[in-house]
Amino acid sequence: MNIVPTGQILGATVTGVDLAQPLSHADFSTIVRALAEHGVLRFPRMQLRAEALRRFSQRFGSLQALRATLPGDTGVPEVSTLSNIVRDGKPIGIPDAGQSWHTDMTYNKVVGYINVLVAYEVPMRDGKPLGATEFVNTAAAYDDLPDEMKERLANATAMHDLNLYWEYVRREKGSTRSALTAQERAERPPVRHPVFLTHPVSGRKVIYVNPSYCETIEGMPDDEGRRVIQQLFDHMLQPKYRYMHHWVKGDLLMWDHLWTWHNAVADYGPDEHRLMIRCQVTADRVFEPDFLREPLSETA
């Protein structure tokens, strides 16, 4: 396996491994550690089908399954379609651009670990790819915080609430989705996570707040909590912490939700087609002490 860093704040390109085949423990461990070091990994010319993508992704943890079937779904519940394509008046898959900065699944008690996307169609204009994905390095942002802020928030927690983002999309993005019902809100109640999280593989401290789901910090007056949260957001979104991935057809891209934010850039039109398939891996295994321990079956 060959891993070439981008030389930027995040990102590396990985070659010399076939992700359609079962991973050895050595290759699995190398990818996990590379993800903890670089945050975003690109595997070029790795256009896996849905079943193969599921097999690869589930090595890293449990997969999030789709709640509902949509036109264009892959037929594999854990593999969703992201697309702006409309056929016969119906969208093919889930739109995935212009959602604003976020990291995934922080509104769950068991949060997100990895996103794995495969690019089937990439919009192009004048020979240049559109629909890039931009990332933020939240570990580097933590390193640069003033010591006073680190000490003040060392043991702080923030509430993450799915309903905040749900209502934002309805209010600001013109979504026609209905409001969450009382039952749906009860099934997804607000959860608390530390403002500063220790990454289970790298051991680095990261800022673990989410502009989509966090509104304030526990134990602070609401106005003060909102002000501190906004200070963290503004600090993290400085250009020096950002990395832009420009997609190439056939890319498999995976990124670590625990120490990156991402934002899909909506710079393409409805006739400039973008089509990807995706797996979402939860962080139910990565925090376990034996996550990278070699299985007995591979040491016998």
From TrEMBL:
Keyword Protein biosynthesis: no
MF-aspect GO terms: 2-oxoglutarate-dependent dioxygenase activity; metal ion binding
Domain TauD/TfdA-like: from-to ranges: 8-279
Keywords from the UniProt entry: Dioxygenase, Iron, Metal-binding, Oxidoreductase
Alphabetical list of SUPFAM superfamilies matching this protein: Clavaminate synthase-like
Keyword Metal-binding appears in the UniProt entry: yes
Gene3D superfamilies: Clavaminate synthase-like
A matching Pfam family: TauD
Family: Belongs to the TfdA dioxygenase family.
Protein's name in the database: TauD/TfdA family dioxygenase
Originating species: Verticiella sediminum
